[in-house]
Amino acid sequence: METRTDYSDDIKTIKRIMEESSRFLSLSGLSGIFSGFLAILGGLFVYFLMMQNGTNLKIEILAVALSVLVLALSGSFYFSIRKARMKGLKVWTPVSRRLLLNLFIPLATGGFFILILYIENQLQLIVPAMLIFYGLSLVSAGKFTYSEIFYLGVAELITGFLAAIFQDFFIWFWIFGFGFLHVIYGLIMYRKYQG
Amino acid sequence: MKTDITGLNKLFENRVRLGIMSILAVNDSCDFNDLKDSLSVTDGNLASHLKALEESDIIRVNKQFIGRKPNTSYSITENGASLFKIHINALENLIKQR
């Protein structure tokens, strides 16, 4: 006959396995902090470039944006893999595959849409589109990881709509959405989930 | 009926089976290797528990080919989902009762 502690062990095991098999729990708060600071630096650099108003402004801004994107993504992967190792969890699982798929469908859609805006010179809509598609990606990925990601996504969406209304301040909305919100989110996650 | 007086189901008493059920309860389906990795059990051990659950109509087996490789995945049946729910409720009640 099992004792009562065995039963509560059973329940704990069931809950842990359900959680681990349906949510990716190795996202690190450090990714948020790192990407946020990168975005703030990138945003300020673009602001500086606009002040200078050089002849290749459009190309220069694109180069900064792509560098920030690549560095932020690499940082996120690095910190997630590190956290998974520390917690003894696997990184490449059915859940992480679903997470990536649900993240990258809206994100890639946004990327292509923004590319078209860029080619067609509809530049004033680029920052709102970045924030809105990024917000949608997070909302869609939120089902497969910590629920805070969902709320970060909603905050990005709201920032995106505000950026679409107040287009003159696009660089500040960009710094707020990709910089400030990421840092805040990263700090919360880091404290709440120890890593 | 395999349910005892406490409402616990004998089919789920084993740790490996509890693990299998926990995974399948929250995922549409899961293949053999992913189950094996998640639960850290041997092929033979896992296969025998899966067989037992399959024979009691708790889980369903889907065999298919991915490219040229055979792939076996498992999903929970409606019957299995409701029995597992009853089992979890019974566990929770037992803890509360002291």
Number of helices of chain B: 4
**General shape of chain B:** elongated
Low-pLDDT runs of chain B: none
Oligomer: heterodimer
N-to-C span of chain A: 40 Å
Largest interface: A-B, 17 and 21 residues
Sheet of most strands of chain A: none
CATH class of chain B: Mainly Alpha
Please indicate the percent range of residues of chain A in DSSP E strands (runs of 2 or more).
under 5%
Instruction: Please give the number of β-strands of chain A.
Output: 0
Overall mean pLDDT of chain A stands at 92
Give the helix/strand class of chain A. Answer: mainly alpha
What can be said about this structure in brief?
Chain A is mainly alpha-helical.
Protein model, in words:
The complex is a heterodimer of chains A (195) and B (98). Helices cover 81% and strands 0% of the residues of chain A. Chain A is mainly alpha-helical and 195 residues long. Chain A has one domain. Chain A is elongated, with a radius of gyration of 19 Å. Chain B is an alpha+beta fold and 98 residues long. Chain B has one domain: Orthogonal Bundle (Arc Repressor Mutant, subunit A), CATH 1.10.10. Chain B has helices at residues 15-26, 32-39, 43-55, 78-97; strands at 30-31, 59-66, 69-76. Chain B has a 3-stranded antiparallel sheet. In chain B, a hairpin with a 2-residue loop joins β2 and β3 (69-76).
